[in-house]
Amino acid sequence: MRLLAALCLLLLLRFAEPRRGRRSDAAERGSAEWAHTRGRGRAGVVRRQTQECKEYFDAGEKYLDCQDRQLTTVMEGWPKDIHHLLLARNKIQVLRDNMFSQFSQLKSLDLQQNAISMVEDRAFNGLSKLRTLLLQHNSLKTASDEVLLPMPRLTYLRLYDNPWSCHCPLDSLLRTLQVPSNRNLGNYAKCAEPLSLRGQKLKKLNVDSLCAGDNQVDETQPKPPTKKIVATSMCHTYMFPKPVLDCSYKGLSNVPSDLPSDIVKMDLSGNNIKHLRPKQFLHSKDLKMLNLSSTSLNQIDAGAFAGLLYLRELDLSNNSLHYFQYAVLEDLYFLRKLSLSNNPWICDYNIHYLIYWLKLHPGVAHTGLICAEPREFRGWRVVDYVKTYNGECPKDIQTGGANNGAQGGTENE
């Protein structure tokens, strides 16, 4: 009886196993396919886009930072409610029709330092709220005014450092740029050809005679490299949240020429600019912060800061300055902060101008005025040295003042 029961049990198990196995295999395959599809459709995309771009908020507005990502076009899956799209330093060559149409809330679009050589007429369709468009440092030769029509609120347009071909096809764009109300559209952009117009600004060309230059001879000669174009193209321009020119640690030996006039902050730190000559910042009238720290600076001519009427912060720390020549600071009427630390200040008669200027401008907070030479004054505060030089204190008190001055680097807080 037991043997018969065992045989019945074995038969039941034999018939049940294949059926259970088939269901298990199908379930496993289905689960795998579902997981793969789900991962590809959701998690995979999110993870890939997170690695490519950085999304953040500033002052209540949404930014998508896709700079330096080797991108050749706009990717699917990017958020459509962004206000500022940063695509600088990628490998985009052509702006196709409706390329940005999904970003209807966009206020600024940064496309500088790509390889853009063509913009189709409807590339900016849908960008009715766009105010800032950066296209400098690309390979554009021509474009029609139709590319600007979808952007009625456009206020800032940067087109410089492109090899513009100043022939008849550029006619309509030039007429739009030269409308008086478009004062910030296309500033500093210049012709690369024909030869007779090379170097002339698009904003100042005689548009009526533009087509007459099409028969110029020898107009295909390559544009000779100029130091100012190379220097400017090495810098990064940011328009939001405020106009900034970042030229830090670019190996520059001079202040770049043709600086944008509307920048508020300029960073030239970490370069090798040893000498500031007169009027190098003359056109940067809106500048409020200027960083010249760690530039090996050892000489500043009078008039170097001419035009910087609204400058509020000036950083000259970590340089090789010994003193200021007379009148170097005379143009800085609204200066509020002056950083002077880590300079080898020489405490002799030449340093007196700086101290007298600071006395006349008590609202300027300054740090770092410590004597490095001569040896007998090393470690003194410069202001204490000047007091001693002028004999304002008895000799026995001067020594005490010197010791107190060696304690810190702050002149006035």
From TrEMBL:
InterPro entries: Cys-rich_flank_reg_C, Leu-rich_rpt, Leu-rich_rpt_typical-subtyp, LRR_dom_sf, LRR_TM_domain-containing. SMART domains: LRR_TYP, LRRCT. One of its GO terms (cellular component) is plasma membrane. SUPFAM superfamilies: L domain-like. Keywords: Leucine-rich repeat, Repeat, Signal. Residues 162-212, 343-394 form the LRRCT domain. Residues 1-18 form the signal peptide. The keyword Repressor does not apply. This is Leucine rich repeat containing 17. It comes from Hippocampus comes.
